[in-house]
Amino acid sequence: MNHIGTREIATERLTLRRFEIEDAENMFYNWANDPEVTKYLTWPAHESVDTTETILKEWISKYDEKDFYQWAIELNDLEQPIGTISAIKTDERVESVEIGYCIGKRFWNNGYMTEALTAIIRFFINEVAAVLAYHLFAHIQVRVAAWKDPFATYSDGGYQVAQSLFAIGTGSWFGMGLFQGLPDEIPVADTDFIFAAISEEMGLILSLCLILVCVSCYVMFLNIALALRNQFYKLVALGLGTCYIFQVFLNIGGVTKFIPSTGVTLPLVSYGGSSILSTMIMFGIIQGLYILREDEEENLERKRERELRNGTKRRTTKKKKTTKEPGFEEVPKQRVR
Questions:
Q1: Is the entire prediction scored with pTM above 0.70?
Q2: pLDDT score of 132
Q3: CA distance 326 to 160
């Protein structure tokens, strides 16, 4: 693992930061002096603030070490630490991390620790693992170097990105014209860098229209997902739509040097049998869910009509029952003389 040390992490309600010596009093009264909170920790409940200061000094002295991870969980509303979370054990052999945490008793059952733990897991996956991948794989280093400055690495990995930028700049707004450009100068222009070839010959305006078409497809996928009533089908449609637009972003972002090149194709535009097949399967599944949505709407409409019909019948029956039969007027009895 390629460690980067304790860094500040912000969430919706919390700030995970390094401890400071001024946190000793809040740490002592919020959780360190409570035996119920420290029951399963490696150190017992503190008897005084001095004990808390001692352990804080030890933690602060280790912050310069890259493999030391110890965060104070600060509640933004209180602006004081309410607990701690740390990597208590890292196994370099299997590249795993054990996380330990504790939080003051009066802050239990509010979801604070779940929020902090989720942020720490994301930190180790996105930050530590990404840096690890950069150092492990040579081709990632080449792509990152080409992304940072393709002209400085023109002869060593930056040639493709540099030619792509040249092509987009040459095409300008209206393009060079069909078959008037030089897409062959861009390596693998028919797959990974098809967007640069389109921009050179057809211009930036048509390229923007292509992006809008992709975005409109994604919006339609979202509309289908939101209209579905079944939660599983809703998540399937949302997930497939997100995969589609994310692939579009990776391709166009790599071609325009917005992000490092990833080598993915532009769906339904780039050449490639497996790419087209997988995209068609994705579109087919979403189309099937759209048909399913229409069936759900028809069934719902039939159900409403049935309920409306039954309700009308019940009201008619009730009216019949409550209708009074005509009565006879009572005549007072006459006395017989």
A1: no
A2: 60
A3: 97
